[in-house]
Amino acid sequence: MNDLFVGSEVSQLQQVIVHRPGTELLRLTPETKDELLFDDLLWVRRAQEEHDQFTHALQQAGAEVLHLDALLTQTLQVPEAKQFVIDHTVDERLHGPAAAPVLRQVAESMGPAELAELVIGGMTKRELLSRIDEPRSVVLHSMGPDDLVIPPLPNHLFTRDASCWVYDGVAVNSMQKPARMREAVTYEAIYRWHPQFAEAAFHRWSDGLRDGQATVEGGDVLVLGGGAVLVGMSERTTAQGVERLAKRLFAGGSADRVVALSLPRARSFMHLDTVMTMVDERSFIEYAGLGELPSYTITPRERAGTPAEVELTIADHPPGQAHRAIAEAMGLHGLRILTAEQDVHSAAREQWDDGCNALAVAPGVVITYDRTPTSNSFLRESGIEVIEVPGGELGRGRGGPRCMSCPTRRARAGE
Length: 415
What we know:
alpha/beta; 5-stranded mixed β-sheet; 3-stranded mixed β-sheet; 15 helices; globular
């Protein structure tokens, strides 16, 4: 049996990938934060302390915690993986034909841990020139000493988005924003060459960087169970990406229903899991301001004469029918939608602070930030066990516990 399996949003969490904040977040400045997709600067030491408490909560809940930087370091011990990562980190189109060979030599001279730090944390011109004499490069000559030669990947904090496991396979996702595109390289290397994954058999639901504009991000993907998947079409996930994901899931025989929910294209609705997450087998916490949105149910239809080829059947649902469509996909008569009664301003504040971004570690047991007290109290009143972790600094990144976790294994039915 393949241990790598996520067949539900709420079954017992057994293994999960996280990333502790590091050098990459120290690269954020008032000048770089917008380009790197952050609204604010994090106090990194405090963010690390908060993330350590999040990790402890995961372990206390029974999950094996894998750290992304450690996985990458171990992966880079494999020569093919090291070459792959360097090939996708140093690019003549970005660094110029004069500087690229020099940067490649620097990267190739590094050991696995140092190279992993470079890939995630980036490198400034000053740091580069502490190793080598400045080459004859217009690109480098025109840069200031603290300009970034290798951009960092601060959004690796949110391990959910660039990689998401759906049933017995994984999607290494094509990311919508340039600042996040290289995150796919990290996961691609890990899943190809890290011993824990390279020796396992699992489906691949995407082509990562090669998917181009057909983007899907993991924060928009909810595994409903029983062969059903819910995907948000958001600021980051396109309709083309949803169709490609659905077709692969159907061809692999791992899912037979995908419900696509059309979200407003706004930063406050960045991903589906910023406004709606699953907390037990039939219950969702949902943002009061979500409104009535159009949705679509996608199912497979075999092409006549070519049973291996799957066509898509699309059923449109008008605004107001999304909950019914999700319930039908799950084989339920209805859902329990949990929305705390708040005035519009309080509800918007808690949604912005990730009040709806709950991570279920078992049916009816969730991890949330402590900065969303109204939502947490309402969940408890609704019979959900809430494990609070501090989010004063982590929450500035606009991502909650679900965003910061990439489950790779949850308990199967009956376990």
